[in-house]
Amino acid sequence: MHEEPEVAVLRYGHRPGRDDRMTTHVGLTARALGADRVILPDNAGQSKETVEDITGRFGGPFGVELTDALNAVIRNWEGVVVHLTMYGERVQDVEEDVREVHEETPILIVVGGEKVPFEVYEHADYNVGVTNQPHSEVAGLAVFLDRLFDGRELDREWENADRKVIPKATGKKVVEPGADGEASDADATEDA
Ligand SMILES: C[S@@+](CC[C@H](N)C(=O)[O-])C[C@H]1O[C@@H](n2cnc3c(N)ncnc32)[C@H](O)[C@@H]1O
């Protein structure tokens, strides 16, 4: 999926303390569900560290950046800007359009925290609602990415991981990936 044009996620706003987990989860969700990088406000350094730590252990590639110029990131984006908001067009009505545009063009997905200024709505090429009900930036991002990639992100392979979870019906199995990327039984640890 990484030969496709870039998918970046911009976390618009961060209240230290109150938003720490949410901002971290925006980053982790962006990573797990197929985005190439997340851009966080510069007061979210702790979230950056956590997402980088997870990428170091569970694999990448995935980039994490801080910015002190959220509006400039949106204004200067060379591609399509999708702002996720409960007030937007229904995701099921625009997803096909967005997928087509993405075949040729990088996408910046903007998710808010506290109130998002109207300027963002105006600059966005698409304001998209994952339902028109209030919920969470993490939930909205997850559903949108899954629609964007049409589920392909679920089969993604991870590079340079120092551990890999082997899916099990019951219990936990974590292994060290072998040189060929395959797990070896000798490496297996239960309950890691
Ligand atoms: C807790 S909401 C607060 C939004 C705030 N009331 C405003 O007007 O911008 C935080 C973020 O979650 C996302 N969000 C919440 N509900 C959504 C929905 N139904 N569809 C898409 N995104 C949603 C948006 O990105 C929003 O900025």
From TrEMBL:
<comment type="similarity">
    <text>Belongs to the aTrm56 family.</text>
</comment>
<protein>
    <recommendedName>
        <fullName>tRNA (cytidine(56)-2'-O)-methyltransferase</fullName>
        <ecNumber>2.1.1.206</ecNumber>
    </recommendedName>
</protein>
<keyword id="KW-0808">Transferase</keyword>
<dbReference type="GO" id="GO:0005737">
    <property type="term" value="C:cytoplasm"/>
</dbReference>
<dbReference type="Pfam" id="PF01994">
    <property type="entry name" value="Trm56"/>
</dbReference>
<comment type="function">
    <text>Specifically catalyzes the AdoMet-dependent 2'-O-ribose methylation of cytidine at position 56 in tRNAs.</text>
</comment>
<dbReference type="InterPro" id="IPR029026">
    <property type="entry name" value="tRNA_m1G_MTases_N"/>
</dbReference>
<feature type="region of interest" description="Disordered">
    <location>
        <begin position="169"/>
        <end position="192"/>
    </location>
</feature>
<dbReference type="GO" id="GO:0106059">
    <property type="term" value="F:tRNA (cytidine(56)-2'-O)-methyltransferase activity"/>
</dbReference>
<feature type="binding site">
    <location>
        <position position="84"/>
    </location>
    <ligand>
        <name>S-adenosyl-L-methionine</name>
    </ligand>
</feature>
<keyword id="KW-0963">Cytoplasm</keyword>
<dbReference type="GO" id="GO:0002128">
    <property type="term" value="P:tRNA nucleoside ribose methylation"/>
</dbReference>
<feature type="binding site">
    <location>
        <begin position="112"/>
        <end position="116"/>
    </location>
    <ligand>
        <name>S-adenosyl-L-methionine</name>
    </ligand>
</feature>
<keyword id="KW-0819">tRNA processing</keyword>
<feature type="compositionally biased region" description="Acidic residues">
    <location>
        <begin position="182"/>
        <end position="192"/>
    </location>
</feature>
<keyword id="KW-0489">Methyltransferase</keyword>
<dbReference type="InterPro" id="IPR002845">
    <property type="entry name" value="tRNA_mtfrase_aTrm56"/>
</dbReference>
<keyword id="KW-0949">S-adenosyl-L-methionine</keyword>
<comment type="subunit">
    <text>Homodimer.</text>
</comment>
<dbReference type="InterPro" id="IPR029028">
    <property type="entry name" value="Alpha/beta_knot_MTases"/>
</dbReference>
